[in-house]
Design brief:
It contains 3 helices and 7 strands, in the order ββαβαβαβββ. Helices cover 17% and strands 19% of the residues. It binds S-adenosylmethionine (SAM).
C-alpha cells in the first residue's frame, strides 16, 4: 500500500495501451464518479504513474491478493483475460464492512462474469456514448458501464450516465 500524495498532474502521465488492456480512466469522468460515488480512498489496480488515489496497489504488489476492507474503491481493471477475477474480487470485497467498490468496465453483457457478479451489483450505470481512455483521440471500440458493489445482492438501480 502506498500512502502519500498523488503525483501532480504535470508529472502524472496517463497510460494507454490497448495491447496491455491498460485503459486509463479519463480524469474528468473519474472526477464525476468521485463526486457521485466517492470520495474514493483506494485504487487497487494502478501504477505510480496512473493511480487515481493516494492509496493504491501496483501489479507487482498484486491488488487481487490484498484486502480492500474499509475503503471506497475505484477499480478500472486491466481489460484483458483475467478481468473476471477483478470483478469477482470487487463483488466479494464489497461484502466486507464499510467497503464499497465502484468498477469501470466494458459492458460485456454476454459474459459469465456479467451474469455471475454484475447482475448482483447494487447499481449499473451504462455510459452513453464511448469514453476516450488515456491520451487517445479516439473513442474506445467498446461500450462501458459503471458498476457499484455495495454489499447487497439486489440490483436496485440501472440507468444511463453521461460521459
Ligand atoms: C486500466 S489501468 C487503470 C489505471 C488507473 N487506475 C486508472 O483508473 O486510470 C489498470 C492498471 O492496473 C495495473 N495492474 C495490472 N495488474 C495488476 C495487479 N495484479 N494488481 C494491481 N495493479 C495491476 C496496470 O499496471 C495498470 O496500471
Amino acid at each position: 500500500m502506498h500512502w502519500g500524495p498523488q503525483m501532480d498532474k504535470s508529472t502524472q502521465k496517463t497510460m494507454f495501451s490497448s495491447k496491455t488492456g491498460n485503459w486509463a480512466t479519463p480524469q474528468d469522468f473519474f472526477d464525476k464518479l468521485n463526486w457521485r460515488f466517492g470520495p474514493f480512498t483506494l485504487d487497487p489496480c494502478a501504477s505510480t504513474h496512473n493511480t487515481k488515489c493516494a492509496n493504491f496497489f501496483t501489479e507487482s504488489e498484486n491488488g487481487l491478493e490484498k484486502d480492500w476492507e474499509g475503503f471506497t474503491c475505484f477499480v478500472n481493471p486491466p481489460y484483458g483475460r483475467g478481468i473476471d477475477k477483478w470483478i469477482e474480487k470487487g463483488y466479494n470485497e464489497a461484502k466486507k464492512s464499510h467497503t464499497k467498490v465502484v468498477m469501470l468496465i466494458p459492458a460485456r453483457t454476454d459474459t459469465k462474469y456479467w451474469h455471475n457478479y454484475v447482475m448482483n451489483a447494487s447499481e449499473i450505470h451504462f455510459v452513453k456514448g464511448r469514453l476516450k481512455f488515456g491520451d487517445s483521440e479516439n473513442p474506445a471500440p467498446f461500450p462501458s458501464a459503471v458498476v457499484v458493489f455495495d454489499g447487497g445482492n439486489e440490483l436496485w438501480r440501472v440507468e444511463g450516465i453521461n460521459r
